[in-house]
């Protein structure tokens, strides 16, 4: 097993990785920006190194500073968490070049799946269903207009190098496409350093369902069930649950098999997620993207399978077998995750600030992965995620009841937060029925 691990991240995911690593007897090293010095993950690590100021480009995305910290502390491996450098193929290569273990997929797999157009084409060749769309970048607005006529409106305009719901816009006609094309292209150039865009058919009533895959050290790729991620605002997830209430056993089997083919097509190792759009009207699903990292919502998979995905990541990275038999692993019960963000519960605009009261909910089937404690300050420098509340029940109804109780029991004063939204959602008839789609939040607001 790995003996020392540098966690190249912050907040709740850094704490979560540190917790598992320390349980395995691994020495842990945290890196932090100067504004994060008082956060729990810094003191919970065995060692901590400040790598720069608040600006992520000068700290958490500063590859040179992180590699220097690894050298300084004698780290054997680096776990990138999610976001920041987690899907940066150049960083993954730099880690390997430095003689360190990268806890994630190989750089070639990250590169292959990092460009949405390349990923679409790879998946189509591997027999994974893809939505009607462009096989090459739409280099000009005229190219986009011609492609849209062939695909059929409405269309989704996407940054080819984007991810996490960023760099996207919907066009219902040629006028809308002309208006949004340059906006998406400009955004992609500024944020991702690549202005390439693609077009895909947009489905107004669709569900977002994803599959947790794990590429084992022996080369086998396995699927560890699916997660429903259709409760979203601005194409970004707020709630995830497993299993999806939308799928029949036959649909589930097809989806999981396609996800395994996707992983096999790029020689995938370690944890990753194959994201798909599911059309409840037809039962068809289409490849959306592959996240070549650990997902924010991985705890719901852990809850229903009774496994530790971070431990699995560390074992795969070390060339060891995982701690469970994938052939006999069975999903049991139902889990729901709520993302507790520092944002107002109506318009979902950021609302950072000092935490005056922070009392986490407790109870049977309740887990809280948090990045903060009372007295900390949520700054505007990073994502608004403060904590994740994960609940587990023998069935979906029990999980919802436990989610209600957990939301009511979470005492949080200081930053604006979306707990009132979750209280509303857990009583929403559409959500409770399980028959909802990605436009649910829009309808609620």
TrEMBL record:
Pfam family, one: Biotin_carb_C
EC number: 6.3.4.14
Occurrences of domain Biotin carboxylation (ranges): 1-445
Occurrences of domain ATP-grasp (ranges): 120-318
ATP-binding is among the record's keywords: yes
GO terms, molecular function: ATP binding; biotin carboxylase activity; metal ion binding
Keywords tagged on the record: ATP-binding, Biotin, Ligase, Nucleotide-binding
Top-level taxon: Bacteria
Stored InterPro entries: ATP-grasp (IPR011761), BC-like_N (IPR005481), Biotin_carboxylase_complex (IPR050856), Biotin_carboxylation_dom (IPR011764), Biotin_COase_C (IPR005482), CPAse_ATP-bd (IPR005479), PreATP-grasp_dom_sf (IPR016185), Rudment_hybrid_motif (IPR011054)
PANTHER family: CARBOXYLASE:PYRUVATE/ACETYL-COA/PROPIONYL-COA CARBOXYLASE, METHYLCROTONOYL-COA CARBOXYLASE SUBUNIT ALPHA, MITOCHONDRIAL-RELATED
Entry protein name: biotin carboxylase
């Amino acid at each position: 097993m790995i003996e020392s691990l540098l966690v190249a991240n912050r907040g709740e995911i850094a704490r979560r990785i540190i917790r598992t690593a320390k349980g395995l007897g691994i020495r842990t090293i945290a890196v932090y920006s100067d504004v994060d010095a008082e956060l729990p993950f810094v003191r919970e690590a065995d060692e901590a190194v400040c790598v720069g100021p608040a600006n992520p480009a000068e700290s958490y995305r500063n590859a040179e500073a992180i590699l220097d910290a690894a050298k300084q502390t004698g780290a054997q491996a680096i776990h990138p968490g999610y976001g920041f450098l987690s899907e940066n193929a150049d960083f993954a290569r730099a880690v390997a070049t430095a003689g360190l273990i990268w806890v994630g997929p190989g750089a070639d797999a990250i590169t292959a799946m990092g460009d949405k157009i390349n990923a679409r084409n790879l998946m189509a060749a591997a027999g994974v269903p893809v939505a009607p769309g462009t096989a090459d970048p739409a280099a000009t607005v005229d190219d986009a207009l011609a492609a849209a006529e062939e695909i059929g409106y409405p269309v989704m305009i996407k940054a080819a190098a984007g991810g996490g719901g960023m760099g996207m816009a919907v066009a219902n006609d040629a006028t809308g496409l002309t208006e949004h094309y340059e906006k998406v292209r400009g955004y992609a150039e500024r944020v991702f350093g690549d202005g390439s865009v693609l077009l895909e058919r947009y489905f107004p009533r669709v569900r977002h369902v994803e599959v947790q895959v794990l590429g084992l050290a022996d080369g086998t790729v396995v699927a560890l069930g699916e997660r429903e991620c259709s409760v979203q605002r601005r194409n970004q997830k707020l709630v995830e649950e497993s299993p999806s209430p939308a799928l029949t056993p036959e649909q589930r089997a097809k989806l999981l098999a396609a996800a395994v083919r996707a992983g096999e097509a790029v020689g995938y190792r370690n944890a990753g997620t194959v994201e798909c759009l599911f059309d409840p009207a037809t039962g068809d699903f289409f490849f959306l993207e592959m996240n070549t990292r650990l997902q924010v919502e991985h705890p719901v998979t852990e809850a229903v399978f009774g496994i530790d995905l971070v431990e699995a990541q560390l074992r795969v990275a070390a060339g060891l077998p995982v701690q469970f038999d994938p052939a006999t692993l069975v999903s049991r019960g139902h889990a729901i995750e709520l993302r507790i963000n520092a944002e107002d519960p109506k318009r979902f605009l950021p609302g950072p600030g000092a935490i005056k009261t922070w009392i986490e909910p407790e109870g049977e089937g309740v887990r809280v992965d948090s990045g903060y404690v009372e007295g900390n300050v949520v700054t505007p420098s990073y994502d608004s995620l403060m904590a994740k509340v994960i609940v587990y029940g023998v069935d979906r109804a029990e999980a919802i009841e436990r989610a209600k109780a957990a939301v009511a029991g979470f005492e949080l004063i200081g930053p604006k937060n979306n707990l009132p939204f979750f209280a509303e959602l857990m009583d929403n008839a559409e959500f409770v029925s399980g028959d909802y789609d990605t436009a649910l939040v829009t309808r609620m607001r």
